[in-house]
């Protein structure tokens, strides 16, 4: 089943994005009623459609915004539990700077197909590759990524070191599992992923952590496409990102702008600092907002954030950066596992006593196996 619509819409002057929550339709009505409005109008072409993925039967909801004049283009990759409709202000800002904008709902989120919150890293990389097939290879390309979307894009770039773009913008990037979950929970997660990867858990995501703007929080609360549920498989993805990205950060060389709020309680700004210090990019910039929450593009930090993004993108456009797309991309991440001497001894011990386990009750066998597995994982560096 295919679906596609094309329409035109009006954008106003940069004043359009000063508020943290103004929609195009309401602003258009305001302009018609206010004869003293002095903003400069532009027309953008909007195309909405479903595109096929490399997985049979799964389609992604895709939007393309094309301004009258195109200087560059950007792909916006959203984070966990949300969808592309949460980036209206950001989209308008890019359009006013003559950027062609590509948005999509990730697999299992928003209007896209797939089981809710159950995609693997390989599938998320595959979907990003599908969106890359939609862009014009002759126009400078930027990627804006938020939270877990930043982990997806950075891991994709690390797995494909020959892939080159004009620049990457990371907002509130999530590189590590929050410390409050602890090591025992992480070990339990790895075990459950092998038994029941489809099991959905409530993350109890506190919407007040997203923004200081109460109107935006109410909007998130009533949005039917915002979901706090996460599958065991998806939670394992976050753990694998932690095991892969920071240990390999020194291999990252793409021009990057890192934005993070110091008051972010979902993803720590210290992880972004750690990543920034390790990467080898010749063009790298980091901006920490003292009062910033998780969604700074929907908060009072937006005017300053918008200026930083616009100036950095213009600087990168003027740079002589050769982009490079690949015919085939590597997908997924490679997490190295190390066996310590203690782990090896425990494995040998388990093999030696396996015959003696036959005389024990089933419940005792299961308890011993779980205990041994916990010991094995405790002595495996993460």
From TrEMBL:
GO cellular component: membrane
Domain Serine aminopeptidase S33: start-end pairs: 71-301
Coiled coil (UniProt feature): none
Gene Ontology molecular functions: lipase activity
Listed SUPFAM superfamilies: alpha/beta-Hydrolases
Cited InterPro entries: AB_hydrolase_fold (IPR029058), Hydrolase_4 (IPR022742), MAG_DAG_Lipase (IPR051044)
Region span, Disordered: 1-26
Gene3D superfamilies, per database record: alpha/beta hydrolase
Signal peptide range: none
Name of the protein this chain belongs to: Serine aminopeptidase S33 domain-containing protein
Lineage summary: Eukaryota, Sar, Alveolata, Ciliophora, Intramacronucleata
């Amino acid at each position: 089943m295919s679906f596609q619509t094309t329409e035109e819409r009006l954008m106003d002057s940069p004043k359009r994005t000063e508020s943290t929550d103004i929609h195009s339709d309401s602003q258009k009505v305001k302009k018609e009623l206010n004869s003293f409005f002095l903003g400069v109008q532009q027309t953008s072409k909007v195309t909405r459609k479903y595109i096929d993925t490399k997985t049979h039967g799964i389609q992604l909801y895709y939007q393309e915004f094309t301004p009258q004049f195109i200087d560059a283009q950007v792909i916006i990759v959203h984070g966990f539990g949300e969808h592309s409709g949460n980036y209206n202000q950001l989209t308008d800002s890019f359009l006013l700077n003559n950027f062609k904008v590509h948005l999509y709902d990730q697999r299992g989120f928003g209007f896209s197909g797939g089981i809710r919150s159950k995609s693997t890293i390989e599938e998320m990389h595959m979907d990003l590759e599908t969106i890359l097939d939609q862009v014009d290879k002759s126009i400078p390309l930027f990627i804006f990524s938020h939270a877990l979307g930043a982990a997806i894009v950075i891991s994709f770039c690390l797995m494909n070191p020959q892939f080159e773009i004009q620049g990457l913008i990371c907002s509130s990037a999530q590189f590590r599992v929050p410390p409050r979950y602890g090591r025992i929970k992480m070990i339990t997660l790895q075990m459950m992923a092998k038994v029941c990867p489809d099991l959905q858990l409530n993350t109890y995501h506190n919407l007040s952590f997203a923004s200081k703007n109460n109107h935006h929080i109410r909007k998130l609360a009533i949005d039917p496409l915002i979901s706090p549920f996460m599958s065991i498989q998806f939670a394992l993805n976050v753990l694998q990102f932690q095991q892969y990205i920071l240990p390999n950060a020194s291999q990252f060389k793409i021009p990057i702008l890192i934005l993070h709020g110091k008051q972010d309680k979902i993803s720590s700004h210290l992880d972004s600092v750690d990543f920034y210090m390790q990467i080898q990019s010749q063009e790298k910039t980091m901006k920490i907002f003292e009062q910033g929450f998780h969604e700074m593009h929907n908060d009072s930090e937006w005017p300053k954030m918008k200026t930083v993004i616009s100036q950095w993108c213009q600087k990168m456009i003027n740079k002589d950066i050769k982009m490079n797309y690949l015919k085939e991309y590597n997908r997924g991440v490679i997490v190295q596992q190390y066996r310590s001497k203690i782990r090896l001894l425990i494995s040998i011990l388990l093999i030696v006593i396996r015959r003696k386990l036959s005389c024990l009750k089933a419940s005792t066998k299961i308890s011993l196996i779980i205990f041994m597995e916990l010991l094995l994982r405790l002595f495996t560096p993460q």
